[in-house]
TrEMBL record:
Keywords: Signal. Residues 1-23 form the signal peptide. This is NodB homology domain-containing protein. Residues 27-156 form the NodB homology domain.
Length: 429
């Protein structure tokens, strides 16, 4: 009787299905979002947060605050929530179509601009997923720890013989492979398959590429909030068996590299006395102490320079309204750098200082009209306070018809201290 019972138990045990084999490596999924689109914030971010998952948002610094795109404040909120901000060029340029110098401007200056806004920018994504050897080298030279492409992993309709996952760490961190971009035609089953095919083939890294998060928004590169929610509902419990969601930085790691400007040094038509080394009456030559409104402030020529021996400091100790800023002199042509109508210019200044989070420190720029009148032209994006020097780079719109010269400088519109040095002006047309 006991023997028959033991045999029955043994037979039942043998008939039970075998547990699935464990993957040789863990499976890691990264949720990456390209282009810094507004619906990623309004529709996508709440879904990620509700599932306790962190994404990587590759933003275009030159489009922050423009129609349909993230504002700088929204990007700051995303970063404050533990998500990653990555670079995606100044203007979403198709990089291999540009010469090497132009590629460096697009990649390096975008990163410098984002660093200047206070973001920890360590990883990059190529617009359109396009890169060549020159582009990859530029990404590395600009201080990125990785650069993500599009494609290279098994996807429906293409790359059938490709791997099912990227290596951890990638063999080529300057071109991280992915499945094809998620589109309106990508089904929930296909999203799940990108993960399970990696799990079933030894694990690895699966970076997924999203753009718009919207329903019926008229763009092919979109996932509906319902599909994204259903996918994350399915993905969330898989963490118990070893499939986890991580940001690109959590996978790649590495230190935050210093910013590397891509804009070349100014030519003969650039800023005069750019490092503020000469001064008359305490005011740097070819500059002026600008501002408006009511405040108690003091200007000081200081030795705490970015390069050379001198920089200029302004400190506001009581404030009602307006701002204070050191700007290139707005004269009739002796100092004011000339510009060409229709051309686009890259303005730069190094800065450091302390001010409250609500003080919107920005670069302001002006042009001189054909009638010789100086006119306010625009502002750059808001800058974060920093104890060490950072470079603020701003790309102007095309110079208006009839404009003959330009003036610019970083404005302090509230209580705090601002030091500026090393001004640059480059025609990037």
């Amino acid at each position: 009787m006991i023997l028959r019972l033991l045999c029955s138990v043994l037979l039942a045990t043998l008939l039970l299905p075998a547990p699935p084999a464990a993957a040789a490596d863990p499976t890691i999924v990264s949720l990456t979002f390209d282009d810094g689109l507004a619906d990623q914030y309004t529709n996508g971010l709440p879904i990620l947060d509700a599932h306790g998952m962190k994404g990587t948002f590759y933003v275009i610094s030159g489009r922050l605050g423009t129609s349909g795109n993230l504002t700088q404040a929204q990007a700051t909120t995303i970063a404050a929530g533990g998500h990653e901000i990555g670079g995606h060029t100044l203007t979403h340029a198709d990089l291999p179509t540009l010469n090497p110098a132009q590629q460096r401007v697009q990649i390096c200056d975008d990163r410098v601009a984002l660093l200047g806004m206070g973001f920890t920018v360590k990883n990059f994504a190529y617009p359109f997923g396009n890169a060549d050897a020159t582009t990859e080298q530029a990404s590395d030279d600009c201080g990125y720890n990785s650069a993500r492409g599009v494609g290279g992993l098994v996807s429906p309709g293409g790359c059938g013989g490709c791997p099912t996952a990227e290596d951890i760490p990638p063999v080529d961190p300057e071109y991280v492979a992915t499945p094809s971009s998620i589109k309106t035609t990508t089904t929930l089953a296909q999203l799940k398959n990108y993960v399970t095919q990696a799990e079933n083939n030894g694990g690895g890294w699966v970076p997924l590429v999203f753009h718009h998060v919207c329903a019926s928004c008229g763009d092919d590169y979109a996932v509906t909030p319902a599909t994204l929610t259903a996918f994350l509902d399915w993905l969330q419990p898989r963490a118990a068996s070893g499939t986890t969601v991580k940001t690109v930085d959590q996978v790649i790691g590495g230190p935050l590299q210093p910013g590397v400007p891509g804009t070349p040094p100014p030519g003969p038509a650039g800023v005069q006395n750019p490092s503020l080394e000469t001064a008359t009456g305490g005011v740097p030559d070819c500059f002026q102490l600008g501002g408006w409104g009511t405040s108690t402030h003091a200007w000081t020529r200081v030795a705490d320079a970015h390069t050379g021996s001198w920089a200029e400091q302004v400190k506001i100790t009581a404030y009602t309204d307006g701002d204070r800023k050191l700007v290139t002199r707005q004269d009739a042509g002796t100092c004011a750098p000339p510009v060409t109508p229709g051309h686009v210019y890259r303005l730069g200044a190094w800065y450091k200082g302390t001010w409250a989070a609500g003080v919107k420190v920005k670069m302001s720029y002006y042009y001189r009209s054909a009638a010789g009148i100086w006119t306010f032209w625009g502002n750059g994006l808001q800058l974060a306070a920093t104890a060490s020097y950072a470079q603020n780079l701003v790309t102007t719109p095309p110079v208006p018809a009839g404009a003959t010269a330009i003036s610019f400088g970083i404005a302090l519109p509230g209580l705090g201290t601002l030091i500026t040095d090393d001004f640059t002006l480059v025609d990037i047309t």
